[in-house]
Here is the input.
Amino acid sequence: MRWLLGGGYIAVGILHFLFPEALIAITPNWVPAKPLVITLTGIAEAAGGVALLQPWSAALRRAGGIGLAIYAVCVFPANINHMLIDIGSAHPRLGWGYHIPRMLLQPVLIWLALWVSNDHKFDAA
Here is the structure.
């Protein structure tokens, strides 16, 4: 599961650089410097994914998981905005069948980032 999540975040991070206009379009209007934010969030996703996948440091994997969990909380307003834009349009492209599961999966992504980044060992103390 760690490999799937890490690889997914790396792929989505790269998409920030390939299709920034699509992400800028769903970013709430109150976010300043949208192109810069999209670039930084792409870097954050890719870096978090790399941190999850690297085999040398459990501490770095844990930091990556915590960072990705925080990231998922921070981008939730953009996910909501995306839903409102799409559902509010005359011809929704994705519809409720995409957006409702996406909203419900956000807490799962947060939990999963934390879970896969833990080494699952129990301390004696």
In short: The chain has a mean pLDDT of 89. The first helix runs from residue 2 to 18. The radius of gyration is 16 Å.
